[in-house]
Amino acid sequence: MAVDPKSEEAQALRKLFPLVTMPVRRYNTLCSQISIIEQPKGNFLFKQGDIPESFIYLLDGTVSLEAEELRIEQITAGTDSAKFSLAHQFPRQISARAVTKVRYVNLRLNAFDKPAIDDAEEKGGYMVENESTSESEEPEDWMSALLKSPIFQRLPAMNLQQVLMSLEDIEIQKGENIFNQGDTGAYYYLIKRGRCSLTRKASAKAKEIKLLELRTNNTFGEDALLSGEPRSMTVTAITDMLLTRIDKERFIKLIKEPALSYIDYPTMLLECEQGKTIAIDIRSADDYNKNHIKGSRNIPFFSLRLSLKELSLENQKVIIICDDGKVSEAAAFVLIKSKIDADILQGGMQDLPKEFEGTALASDNSGAEAPLAVAEQDSHLAANQKAEPAIEASTPDINTASDLEQENQSLKAENKRLTMELEKFKKQYKLLYTQTGKLKNAFDKLQGSK
After folding, report:
1. Are residues 308 and 229 part of one domain?
2. 333 vs 226: CA distance, rounded Å
3. Spatial separation of the C-alpha atoms in residues 13 and 66, rounded to whole Å
4. Domain span at residue 419?
5. Can you give the pTM of this predicted structure?
6. Of the candidates 70, 71, 52, 53, which has an alpha carbon nearest to the alpha carbon of residue 62?
């Protein structure tokens, strides 16, 4: 049964994100296409690992978010946490069980997409187009694109809420530079409307080269925030633009920390041996030639975006290597945005343990080392005619070690990996527990003030 737009349920639904920003006519149309679902106490709304076909919004009751029989958080309808869809990550990272009788709605994944033909009569919606804009914009609502992007899929609901509350809109005129190469990074941007170009100069006197063009729903500006380096390119508005942005401090705290993951060397070695991952060294070709991990592939950071399609086709997790792990954070962000699973080698080459120097990553079935990026193959062709040295040529390759030593090393690496994962889950649980306590206190104060 459809929801009456004037009903109490519809008014409660209207307060949720991103429905609160939806134009009236589109919201009324959405109400005619949905119905309210009820579940008794104890039933699951969804389970960990499910591939969702919809966003779920809680209207009445309380649900428990659980993972592996561990209760992570309770969410009650009407609270701040319930303003967003439950467990928005795909596939579901946790289960949702009804603590009380609950009522909720399922909204299909494309529910927030903008209609192909804009309604010129809508004046109050944030997606009303600038009449002077002649280009054809993407049909998807920017909020919907944000919620479904791989980066924001990794954020806890609390972080997502704080990000949306922290966004600041700015207008940019055609021809205006949003920032220049060499500037200090201050913001991360999302394009609500318009197009811009990304250009770069190899040196002060060199000719400016156009690298990329971005449009509605694209994001940019994270490289300098993550690496700590100056802006590596200039971004110029091709049309009049409407941007929304978040400052560096909130970006690091709310987006970077939960979105990126790290891996130590023994774990990387183990995963590469099992054929689960490929290791990519994003340092310059010169640095890679001087010293690198055998079996790693060299794709310098500024060439990485050109290799995204190739890496997507390989369908493997990527481990990023750089000098100290900082630039790897920016590289991992680029890969994750392109739906490529990526981890960062903790500490980079400079923190490589002495006992592992000289250890090689697993080679492919032919016994040859993993190929270099296409852009680098010519300059390294001669070097690749010989057996590639490990980090220290005097250290024996792992393939010459005894089976017992290999097994022992693998077990140690697996134990360390599991220990790190356990500590990570403990920290996440502690954080969620603290946040839940704060929300409960705030809710109690609100109740007491009524």
Report:
1. no
2. 9
3. 24
4. 260-425
5. 0.55
6. 71
